[in-house]
Design brief:
This protein is an alpha/beta fold. The protein has 21 helices and 25 strands.
Length: 617
């Protein structure tokens, strides 16, 4: 039992219930138990308030109930009946940020099932009536007395209970210097405790069952030889290394038909950190919801299933949001800009269609930036077994999938914490080794002149490969297993992306080709015609080139508004000249000065027969 009777100041700070200014406080025996309590002096107080003290009873005697109690005194100094405020609630420490701001209280309690909970609550939430705090505490199982007076006393208790311990609070999970912060633990903290402080207690998505050794034998061994499974597990290890090697956020999307093994891959990745049933989330949420998920998965992996459930109109923006690592800037109640949420993470997604296909359903065209941020990988590994290549003596892919999911459900979470302990303990050497492995992967799978988009995604795949190799002791995989598996997935992405060239350039060439496929016979006038032609909505002229191939002479405004719609016209012209699709003028410009019927001196863009090259059958 602990009592709040260290000095008169503590009692005087009771909001609305403290003894009045100038009231003396002295020790008196409690009638029922003989314990010492604080009591106001018999002299009338200068200003009439209730005085009293709090007690925290964790181990009650027979006939008593555990909990927080408040005992007040009447005007004559007689003790009133103790008021039960709530079940046992520990105030472990006072928290504050790195700049001695953002103060709060670190709370601990158990729900009726005996499950422990911890929450670093910002002190600003106690400025009013404490409703938000009470609501969150009760949601997570703290029993609170129903009377209004008891509810008010709970807020007071959290503010005035004497606390000598201090803890450093942070606003997001993940890396903070050399410390990695989890919802209920800070790995690497030594001189001072470090805790995650938020306006709501973090849902316990991180969970442990079984051991890292059992998971290695029952899950990782069965995943070996299956590139998509190995890749997914390595994705879960990779985010802890991203900050060490300077990699940005980004995602991967496993695309394939139903029951192909996509969900199994997600379950294996989720099981590194928690129960797959709760750690795996759905895309079906709002932008604000995604921000919240990203913030509590910072420097970790975010698993998102069923991309098709996302509103197609929001899918592209969601990919940008997660990969850019920063939420929206919003105003506070005072109208000032609040600090936006920030994170660094890898997100692993699955669905039956790609991001580009989803956006197409909404009448939107995906751009290269979105498709680079969410790298699309065909889930089918090409062995006729869906996402599998090796069955490990199981009769079917479905049987292996069931065995993997059962193993992940039974043994999860412990391997992730063990991985973090190793990374924290050996940050410097692991960062150097991871960087070397990333460079090795990129050199093996790209060319020196590969465009920046391909190099960027290759580095992300390389980080996953490096993590899979460095975690080999925890997975039991032989050396090179992760490199080979991730390499196969990168090749699958590169094939779907369209090869080792710029996605914007290919998109532009495809759009130009489509324009002439649709309008080549209807909107172009024969430049050599001897009779007047009626060409509705004319786009330009056509003529036969020296090589016998038809050339299209496109008028400048049509080129800018229609042919290059969605692209910057000058940059697009340079790409088309480089590809040989446009024949430049002798003055080096993309357009040429040409004499045309009815247009004495016009500059046009001359499209050659190469406009048809590279079209797919």
């Amino acid at each position: 039992m602990h009592e709040n009777h260290d000095n008169a100041d503590d009692l005087n700070r009771l909001s609305g219930i403290a003894a009045g200014d100038g009231v003396e406080v002295r020790d008196v025996p409690e009638p029922a138990s003989g314990k010492t309590r604080r009591k106001p002096d018999a002299r009338p107080p200068q200003s009439r308030h209730e005085g009293g003290s709090f007690e925290l009873i964790e181990h009650p005697k027979a006939g008593e109930s555990a909990g927080v109690y408040f005992t007040g005194f009447d005007q004559e100094g007689n003790a009133k009946a103790p008021l039960w405020v709530c079940a046992p609630l520990q105030i472990i420490a006072k928290t504050r940020g790195t700049k001695s701001a953002d103060w709060g209280r670190l709370l601990e309690w158990r729900d009726p099932d005996g499950r422990p909970h911890r929450w670093a609550v910002p002190a600003e939430l106690l400025a009013g009536d404490g409703l938000e705090v009470r609501r969150e505490l009760m949601r997570l199982g703290l029993e609170v007395a129903p009377s209004k007076r008891a509810r008010d006393m709970l807020s007071t208790y959290m503010q005035v209970w004497p606390v000598t311990e201090r803890a450093r609070c942070v606003e997001r999970l993940g890396w903070h210097g050399a410390v990695y912060v989890l919802p209920d633990e800070a790995i690497g903290a030594e001189a001072e405790a470090v805790v995650f402080q938020s306006s709501a207690a973090v849902e316990p998505a991180y969970a442990q069952a079984g051991t890292a050794a059992h998971r290695r034998d029952g899950v990782a061994t069965l995943a070996a030889g299956n590139s998509r499974m190995v890749f997914a597990i390595a994705c879960a290890f990779a985010p802890a290394l991203a900050a060490l090697v300077g990699e940005d956020s980004g995602g991967f999307h496993l695309r394939g038909k139903s029951s192909s093994g996509k969900s199994t891959a997600l379950a294996l990745a989720a099981s590194v950190w928690g129960n797959p049933a709760s750690f795996t989330r759905l895309w079906r949420t709002t932008t604000n919801g995604l921000e919240g998920l990203a913030a509590v998965h910072s420097d970790c992996v975010l698993i998102l299933d069923e991309l098709s459930q996302m509103d197609p109109k929001d899918a592209g923006d969601a990919a940008y949001l997660l990969a850019n690592g920063q939420g929206k800037t919003r105003a506070s109640r005072a109208g000032m800009a609040r600090q936006p949420a920030r994170w660094r993470l890898l997100f692993l997604s699955a669905g039956e269609e790609s991001l580009a296909a989803m956006m197409g359903r909404a009448g939107k065209r995906s751009n290269a930036g979105q498709e680079v941020r969410l790298a699309d990988i065909e889930a089918d590994a090409g062995a006729g077994l869906g996402a599998f290549e090796t069955l490990h003596d199981h009769p079917t892919g479905a049987a292996l999938s069931l065995a993997l999911k059962d193993g992940a459900a039974q043994h999860h979470g412990a391997v992730g914490v063990e991985w973090l302990r190793r990374v924290v303990a050996d940050r410097v050497s692991l960062a150097e080794r991871a960087g070397e492995l990333v460079r090795e992967f990129v050199a093996e799978h790209t060319r020196p002149d590969s465009p920046g988009q391909v190099m960027r995604v290759a580095r992300r795949f390389g980080l996953v490969a490096a993590a899979g190799e460095l975690a080999g002791e925890l997975t039991g995989w032989k050396g090179g297993e992760a490199f080979e598996a991730v390499g196969k997935c990168f090749t699958a992405w590169l094939d779907g992306f369209g090869g080792d060239s710029s996605r914007e350039d290919r998109a532009l060439l495809g759009q130009v080709r489509a324009f002439f496929e649709v309008h080549g016979a209807s909107r172009f006038e024969d430049v050599a015609a001897t009779v007047e032609q009626r060409i509705p909505n004319r786009a330009g002229f056509w003529r036969d080139g020296e090589d016998g191939a038809r050339q299209f002479l496109v008028l400048p405004e049509v080129f800018k508004r229609e042919v290059c719609q969605g692209f910057e016209a000058k940059a697009a012209a340079q790409v088309l000249v480089k590809a040989g699709v446009i024949q430049p003028g002798k003055d080096g410009k993309a357009s040429r000065s040409t004499r045309l019927p009815g247009i004495p001196a016009a500059r046009v863009y001359v499209f050659t027969g190469k406009v048809w090259e590279g079209s797919e059958a």
